[in-house]
Design goal:
heterodimer; A: alpha/beta; Rossmann fold; 9-stranded mixed beta sheet; globular; B: mainly alpha; Leucine-rich Repeat Variant; 13 helices; 59% helix
């Protein structure tokens, strides 16, 4: 029975928590949330969600038994019951009609595919970054979120961290003068651009009840099992990873936002020989530089925005450095760039208001496409030119072939209605 | 005044050695995630870089050599995805029925723009079953092979539910008037669990038709907004119809 919150007064809900008090949300007003693949980063996201009284977390799906049990234990302890349901198969969780939203923090190879399934199931989505490991996945994600009208927030939480917001605000409001260049930290050049470098020794596959290897691999190419992959080494392999998007999905995203280019992609990409730099440019004239060195000591995931009248640089420490004229705008920020709490709140707000979150699918898709193009330029070791309208590299068949990765059966990336 | 207040943009500095992953460069793993195991010395028989440097002819030779390992063939397929032309199509297609390498073969074929790829994938349809057939159907969809529409229309009623779903999804992606007709029939003739996939595919097809055949697209949306359709599809069709009504009214 659904009970309107207005009649609940000082009653308690089925978990024994008082309802009808400040900061307490009636059961009928809560957002029913499930989780898929919440492991390391996912547990931080989960903690932020559980801290919000609007959330009722009801189930966890994971291919790994230990992760399923860990999340159930955390959730049950939080609510003081044993109600969190565990699933080996995410399809069972997505089929639950009562579940309104899902949080996805599998490793990278599953993000876009899982988010598309969730959208097709009508669920609102919080999904960790990178949102997609190819250009094709990026577009498919945005198209499915739009098609099914769900609320999607990528785990690009720096869009809701004050020092990054301030930096972007200064750029977008003209306080830096005419914006000339935006710099994105891409320290994490974690896999070889050619990237198919090796297979560890084959080991016996684990019991699927403990770790479902076939499902763990998902849409990626088959390879023989070795515990190196699921036990932390997955990002050493291109098959499971998106290269510079490890950080560029954050820093490139912030830069694209600052450049007022959420709706498009950079058009030229030129790797600088002998460096880790990729020089890019937008049609509006703003330069975008991905680089892994030469940064001020401001923490990880740094960005630097430069205009004709000033500059600002900031990072995950919350600290910021800026040109003299901008000193009046300086803020002391204690929130770390890795903290997802405000970002999760923004997602929940948007679920209620049915509005666009800060890191919505469209802006995320476009920022990811820019970063993927830069990565492809790195892989090819030469300049490439991108046509945003055609979703294609200009006169560059080899680059165009790198826009997608064929999915392993039985998985597929449903539903691009328009040609790439 | 704080330190760094007037600092200028940093000069570009070259890192020591080549960037990780330059062709032939170190296969360093970087951060590798929490608790990532240290990178060991890579066994030469499982090192992809030497294969990656080969030209198409030598990659094809690896595929044809019965003495090549699964690893060698897998990497050759991946490299051919980037550089393979018509010459690579038949050797890759010969692997479509291989349980371990079937996907690698599609990995090599799918982005190759040569039309012979479409012919090879279509030819494989009657020869495969199960997951391998699903994979080929998916690749046909990705490549938007309009010549495969009739074959997929038949597979939409395959006894293997997953094959029927795969064929439906690919029809939606390929799109066009003929796929639209087949999918619309499928909305009446298929049942759960195929019907929801047919409905989603029809949504995609309707989107694709909006420019070329608006009337047919609106007809599809109207059908999809009917009470027998899955709720998420119904709502999506309503949104599309409302958006179109707003657009024409405005």
């Amino acid at each position: 029975m659904i009970v309107p919150s207005s009649v609940l007064g000082q009653a308690v809900d089925q978990t024994g928590r008082p309802v009808g008090q400040p900061g307490v949300v009636a059961p009928s007003d809560r957002i029913i949330v499930g989780g898929i693949g919440l492991r390391n980063r996912g547990q931080q996201d989960l903690a932020a969600a559980l801290a919000d009284p609007r959330v009722q977390f009801v189930g966890i799906a994971d291919v790994r038994e230990s992760s399923r049990e860990t999340i159930k234990s955390i959730v049950d302890r939080h609510y003081g019951n044993s109600n969190c349901v565990i699933y080996r198969d995410d399809a069972e969780l997505l089929a639950r009609e009562d579940v309104e939203a899902v949080m996805i923090a599998t490793s990278d190879r599953w993000h876009a595919c899982m988010a598309v399934w969730a959208a097709q199931s009508g669920k609102d989505i919080y999904c960790e970054k990178p949102a997609a490991i190819s250009i094709a996945e990026s577009f498919a994600l945005a198209e499915n979120v739009r098609r099914y009208g769900v609320v999607y927030q990528a785990g690009c939480q720096r869009r809701n961290v004050p020092n990054f917001e301030l930096a972007v605000g200064l750029a977008r409001s003209g306080k830096l003068g005419k914006l000339l260049a935006v710099h994105a930290d891409d320290w994490s050049r974690t896999v070889t651009p050619l990237g198919h470098s090796w297979w560890p020794e084959e080991r016996p596959e684990p019991d699927p009840l403990v770790l479902d290897w076939d499902k763990w691999l998902g849409p990626c190419p088959w390879r023989p099992y070795n515990s190196r992959y699921p036990d932390g080494g997955r990002s050493q392999f291109w098959d499971f990873h998106a290269g510079i998007l490890e950080w560029a999905s954050h820093t490139g995203d912030i830069c694209q936002w600052a450049a007022d280019c959420d709706h498009t992609h950079a058009i030229e990409y030129e790797p600088v020989p002998g460096t880790t730099h990729v020089n890019c440019s937008y049609a509006n004239g703003v330069k975008l530089i991905f680089r892994g060195d030469g940064w001020l000591d401001l923490g990880t995931c740094r960005v630097r925005l430069e205009g004709t009248e000033g500059w600002i640089e900031t990072g995950d420490s919350g600290k910021m450095e800026m040109s003299d004229d901008l000193r009046p705008y300086h803020q002391t920020v204690t929130m770390r760039g890795t903290d997802p709490s405000r970002h999760i709140q923004n997602w929940l707000d948007c679920i209620r208001s049915r509005s666009l979150p800060r890191a919505n699918a469209e802006s995320t898709c476009n920022a990811h496409v820019t970063s993927h193009c830069a990565y492809i330029a790195c892989q090819l070791g030469r300049k490439v030119t991108w046509d945003p309208a055609k979703r294609a590299f200009v006169n560059d068949e080899e680059a165009n072939r790198m826009r997608s990765r064929a999915y392993r059966e039985p998985w597929r990336l449903d539903s691009l209605a328009t040609s790439m | 005044m704080q330190q760094g207040q007037t600092q200028q943009p940093p000069a570009q500095t070259a890192p020591a050695g080549g960037a990780a992953g330059q062709p032939g460069g170190p296969a360093t793993g970087g951060r590798g995630g929490r608790g990532a195991p240290a990178m060991p010395r890579i066994p030469p028989e499982f090192d992809a870089n030497p294969i990656w440097q080969l030209d198409q002819a030598k990659l094809i030779a690896i595929l044809k050599d019965s003495g090549s390992t699964t690893f060698q063939k897998a990497i050759a397929c991946k490299r051919l995805a980037q550089i393979g032309n018509k010459e690579s199509v038949a050797p890759l297609a010969a692997l479509l029925s291989d349980n371990r390498l079937g996907h690698y073969a599609r990995f090599g074929l799918e982005p190759n723009p040569d039309p012979s790829v479409d012919e090879a994938l279509r030819s494989a349809l009657p020869k495969l079953k199960g997951r391998l057939l699903m994979g080929v159907i998916h690749s046909i969809g990705v490549r938007r092979d309009a010549k495969a529409v009739d074959a997929l229309g038949k597979l939409m009623y395959d006894q293997d539910v997953e094959i029927a779903q795969a064929a439906s999804a690919s029809l939606g992606t390929i799109g066009g008037p003929q796929a639209a007709r087949l999918l619309r029939d499928g909305l009446n003739r298929t049942k759960i669990p195929v019907l929801p996939v047919v409905a989603r595919a029809t949504l995609v097809c309707a989107e694709g038709l909006m420019r070329a055949s608006r009337a047919q697209a609106l007809e599809l949306y109207t059908t999809l907004s009917g009470p027998s359709m899955p709720k998420v599809v119904r709502l999506a069709a309503y949104r599309a119809l409302n958006a179109e009504a707003s657009r024409t009214a405005g």
